[in-house]
Amino acid sequence: MSEGFDAGWLRLREPLDAAALDRPLARQFARLLPPAPKLMDLGAGTGSHVRLLCRDLGQPRQDWTLVDHDPRLLAVAPAELAGWAGEQGWGTTWETGACHIQAPGLEIGVTLRTLDLAAGLEGLDLSRCDGITAKALFDLVSADWMAAFATALTAAGHPPLYASLNVDGRVAFSLPDPDDDFVLGLFHAHMTRDKGLGPALGPAIATAMPDILARNGYKVETASSDWQIGPEHPGAYLALLDGYEQAAREQEPAAAAQIAAWGQRRRALAGRQDSGLMVGHVDLLAWRQG
């Protein structure tokens, strides 16, 4: 995969993810798991899913393998996990490539693994996992890659899949601007560029993924997990504006002046108490039928 993410942006988005994530669907995933589950988190970044899900799983022993193609993000994961655990009053110990988090009634093992999903799925060894998770990953993949992944899941015995925060293309500002549709249209077109896994599905993943998994013997349930970004999230709000503007400009360089003017108007509204932004997401749970 060629797509890269900044650890600072991942920190900004994690509180939004925590507020948006559909907890009942996460707990339904937990009920599909055996005791002491072995979990694999794809596109794991700095370990956000561990932090967001460990309590919902309700399992006193959890073993996570964090898989990401970016060694720089995985290198940050130990400090991010240790800092988070410390805030809970929990202890952490690190060995080479592995972390152990100890809390009252809870023990979490975390192993880090660098793997480029664009190089093929053979190295994942999905059959050794009790459950697969991913957050904000699948909009980066192509329909062909998603189909190959579903085939690999089938060959591995249909382990349950929990995929959170998949964008679905809905974006709404509380204070509309005449150029919102123009800029956001360019942004969503930019999302479909090849990130190393073929032409990305982008917002289409919200409808494509359930269909692909269902054709491979999975029962699928989805739930909305929309970001609600208000004046209490200035960093995330401005970072999103930067991202929208940059992607739109790359998609249509000839409209750079129009896009920049839109960005200026949007930033001028950022401090207002009635200025907000909704970004649509969908959480997905898939498990074997029958």
As for the CATH topology of the domain at 7-165 and 198-230 and 279-288, it is Rossmann fold
**Measured distance between first and last alpha carbons:** 35 Å
Radius of gyration: 19 Å
Look at the structure and name the CATH superfamily of the domain at 7-165 and 198-230 and 279-288.
Answer: Vaccinia Virus protein VP39
Description:
- By secondary structure, the protein is α/β, with parallel strands linked by helices.
- It has a domain at 7-165 and 198-230 and 279-288: 3-Layer(aba) Sandwich (Rossmann fold).
- Helices cover 41% and strands 25% of the residues.
- The protein is built from 9 helices and 10 strands.
- The chain has helices at residues 7-20, 23-31, 48-57, 71-87, 143-155, 180-191, 205-215, 234-251, 256-269, and strands spanning 38-42, 61-68, 91-95, 98-103, 106-114, 131-135, 161-173, 218-224, 227-229, 277-288.
- Strands 1, 2, 3, 4, 5, 6, 7, 8, 9 and 10 form a 10-stranded mixed sheet that branches.
- A hairpin with a 2-residue loop joins strand 4 (98-103) and strand 5 (106-114).
- Helix 5 runs parallel beside helix 7.
- The two termini are 35 Å apart.
- The model has no long low-confidence stretch (mean pLDDT 94).
